[in-house]
Each structure stands twice: as structure tokens, then as C-alpha cells.
Amino acid sequence: MSDKRDFLATAGVNTRLAHTGNVPSDYHGFVNPPIVRASTVLFPDARTMDTRAQKYTYGTRGTPTTDALCEAIDALEGSAGTILVPSGLAAVTVPFLAFLSSGDHALIVDSVYFPTRNFCNTMLTRMGVTVEYYDPAIGAGIEALIRPNTRLVHTEAPGSNTFEMQDISAISGVAHRHGCVVTMDNTWATPLYFKPLDHGVDISIHAATKYPSGHSDILMGTVSANAKHWEQLHEATITLGICGSPDDSYQILRGLRTMGVRLERHQESALNLARWLEEHEDVERVLHPALPRFPGHDIWKRDFTGASGIFSFVLKVSEQAQVKARAHAFLDALSIFGLGYSWGGYESLALVVGLSDRTICKQPAEGPVIRLQIGLEDVPDLRRDLEAGFAAAAAVSA
């Protein structure tokens, strides 16, 4: 058969997902690469060992299985290289450690994933890095915040839990004029619906725990870099001794094969429910960037090619004293929606969002924020479950 690499370069998303990261001819025709578990790797002689003149030298530096996943992610991201780490949070912290030093200044979007903020406020601060949070809507105005020692600008769009959009291209352009590295947590959109490196981002971060896994049973993060920043990122992960396991890599690679069709279903169901919730009498507002009423929708429409299955809404309450009681009553009445963290799996989830950490994008005044992960269940069943939650919340008295 002819080489399929040229064909895949212009193929559709689902075709590429089905055929990247595997070369059956390398493994006797088997369509899935084998799981190669390794710590020790043997060398044929002392000279090869001394010069490390072979592809694999130790398990932390990669195996054929982890390389297969990295190649697949590079094909999706358009990146020069990808590292695998044990969690989505590690995917954020490793590049921070790679590119920041004592005395540096880092700009972090205020709508950031809370564990990222916690890492910044604790470990980065103890390292002597000054951390400053900025408004996600700042755009090119971020230039006013850049100092002579600013080294990194971290973005996340949409924002965690409240889904604020960012003008990534404008922020990247300004940051690069000042010599800053731009990182982005792109977990919500995946590289199928937004490609950070095409918008000026240097380091694309993804919690593969979510949609690439798709089955709520794997923890992993991927970090993909452009050519300018790849070597420094790669060296940092080797120095830190952080790596993803071959077994988990195999599971993520398998999850990629169906990620396109799963995301289509997540998107369709989530938008159906978000539009329904916009008109619901017990909802103050819906926080979903694909809705025309949502601030930042124009940026989403311009830059993104799709939406995933997670969004939030503000539950209506008549008195502030009812906020926690009504939110808890809503959640406790749910049957199909599970109460749990994470998202991107096949099952629907719900939780009350905590926003006490915010300094700019603060808690909506109207009521509690409920975050929904819309899974692969039938929409009429999910509506019926949510209606039970609304009825329970409405029954709560102050």
C-alpha cells in the first residue's frame, strides 16, 4: 500500500484521528501499536551506552507506545513535539517550571482553573516568581501589564467554570513583542475545535483526562510546543523525571479514535440543553460561549470551529440566604447527572462552582453557578432529570 501520510495531511478530522499515531507495518500489520512497558533499556555495547546512540535509553524518556501518542497529538496540534505527564494539572505546571525563574513576572488569566491558581500562589511564589492575574477580556490591552521581567502569559479559553473568552491572537502578538512565552490551557475545545499554535500560542496544554480519554478512567496531560520552545520544554520534563505511562498512553490513543464523533454528540446535546435552559424560568443566565447572548460569543464564532459538552448556568434564587440550600437541593434531586469533578467522559455530571478565589471574574450576584458536563445520554432524559432538580430547588424556603 502507498504511504498514507500525504493523504492524511488533507484528510478530515475523523480520518486523521483513526489513522494517526499508528503504523501497522511496523508491528506485523496489527492496527494498534503494542504496549511497551519499560524502565531498563539494554545497549549492545559500551560505546553505544556512553554516547546514547540509540533511540530508546530509559523508560522515562519514552517507549514506542508513548511515542505513538505523542506523534498523534503533534499531528492534531501542528506542534514540533509533545510531552506526556501524569495529569492535566501537571501539564500546566511543567511548562511553568520550564520557562520561569526566580525574579520573573507571570501574567495569569483570572478565570484560570483553580488548581493552576493554587500552584501559582504557592509553589511559584515560593520560587520567587511574581504572579499577577488579569481580566480575560483584556485583549491587546495586556500590554499595559507587561513589565521588563514578564516572561510568561498564561491563557485559558473559555475560562474555567464561567467560560469567559479571550482574544488569543491579540494577546499572543503583544506578548511576543515583549519576548514572553504564551501558554494556553485548551482542554475545553481540544485541538479539534481550536488550534492554539495557529493563533500565536507557544505551548498548548491539554488535560487528556477529559475528551481524549472519554471514559473517566485515565489521568494524563499533554503539552505541545512550537519549534522555538520545544527543546527547552523537552529538557525540563527530562530533568523533572515526569512522564506518562505506556498503559495510559495506549488508552488515550484508543480514545482518540472516537474523540471526533463523541465531541459531535457532546456539542449537540450541550447546545440543545443550553438553549432550553436560557428560556427556563428558574435560570438567571447560561454561561456558554456558543450562545449568541453570551459576552465573547463573537470571539468564539471567529476563532473556534465547535463547542464541547461543558457549560454553566446561574440558578435563580429570591434571597441570598437561599443560595447554598437551593444549589444543594438541586444537585441532590438529580438521578442521571452524577455529582463529581472532572468531565469529558460518557456520563453527565453536575456540581456547584466555587469562585471565591477570583479577583476580577467574581461570583455572579444573582445566584449559585451550576456547572454541567453533558455526556452521551439521551437529551430528553437529561431534561427530565434537570427538571427534578429545579423542582427541588424551588421547594426550598429561606
Fold topology:
Layout: H1 5-9, H2 13-19, H3 46-51, H4 64-77, E1 81-85, H5 88-99, E2 105-109, H6 114-126, E3 130-134, E4 150-156, H7 168-177, E5 181-185, H8 190-193, E6 203-207, E7 221-225, H9 227-240, H10 246-278, E8 283-287, H11 297-303, E9 310-315, H12 323-332, E10 338-339, E11 349-352, E12 369-373, H13 379-394
Parallel strand pairs: 2-3, 2-4, 4-5, 5-6, 10-11
Antiparallel strand pairs: 1-7, 6-7, 8-9, 9-12, 11-12
Helix pairs in contact: 2-10, 4-10, 5-6, 5-9, 12-13
Report on this structure:
The chain is built from 13 helices and twelve strands. The protein is α/β, with parallel strands linked by helices. The protein folds into two domains: 251 residues, Aspartate Aminotransferase, domain 2, CATH 3.40.640.10; 135 residues, Alpha-Beta Complex (Aspartate Aminotransferase, domain 1). Strands 1-7-6-5-4-2-3 form a seven-stranded mixed beta sheet, with helices on both faces. It has a five-stranded mixed beta sheet with strand order 8-9-12-11-10, covered by helices on one side. The N and C termini lie far apart (71 Å). The mean pLDDT is 95. Its EC number is 4.4.1.8. It catalyses: L,L-cystathionine + H2O = L-homocysteine + pyruvate + NH4(+). One of its GO terms (biological process) is L-cysteine catabolic process to pyruvate. One of its GO terms (molecular function) is pyridoxal phosphate binding.
